[in-house]
Amino acid sequence: MNPAPSSTVALEIAVTSPAGALVARDGGADRVELCVGLELGGLTPSQALVEATHETGIPAHALVRCRPGAFVYDDDELALMEREVRTVLRSGAAGVVVGALRADRTLDEDALRRFVDAARAVSARAEVTLHRAVDHAADPVATAGRLADLGLTRVLTSGGAPSAPAGAATIARMVDAAGPVQVMAGAGVRPGDVPALVGAGVAAVHLSAKRSAGTGHAGVPMGAGDRGDAHSVTDATVVAAARAALDGTA
Fold this sequence. Notes:
Blueprint lengths: L9 E6 L2 H9 L4 E4 L12 H8 L5 E4 L11 H16 L4 E4 L10 H14 L4 E4 L9 H5 L2 H4 L3 E4 L10 H11 L3 E5 L7 H6 L4 E4 L2 E3 L19 E3 L1 H12 L3
Parallel strand pairs: 1-2, 1-8, 2-3, 3-4, 4-5, 5-6, 6-7, 7-8
Antiparallel strand pairs: 9-10
Protein name: PF03932 family protein CutC
InterPro entries: CutC-like, CutC-like_dom_sf
Subcellular location: Cytoplasm
């Protein structure tokens, strides 16, 4: 049975800058997920970016993902991310967001244990979130049921669907399976989706709350994926609307 909707459901905003963290903080977010390359699904932020975001005062959970693409990693990549876990926490992050799968699309539990151990070696209070690698797992519900034994704090999920609203029924099943591990709904979430996701029993909702900065570039591409598009910034209006939607479910 899913827990009743609660006024303690948290609001997390994905940001890529200290300015975005300030917008999230002032709009009523409880914490931010900090990354770079949001258009690639997010990558590990630099030490300086973590430090500057920490100075805004809002708890920041740093994504640790060393490259875009699939979540199956070799030994060198795992060693690098284990080191990144320690670095971002020492730089002021309140937690880390990590994940890894095996080739058969089951959770790479050995990798997760390494990440958890690295985090807690820096701070016993460090929170560890499994990112949306869970949505690429063969069975997201069964995967959620394994997380408490691995020492994770929460899991960010769309329920294995392209968006969290589309995966709400599976998210509700993940809440049941996860036990003490918090389930946070994210991917394609708009403020109007918040009540239904809270009704699924989630502990938090996650939004990128972004808008185009309106300044791209034309001419010579800067890489294979560069179309000259404007970069995105955190939208104060969307953050405030999400906060209001959450408060309305209390």
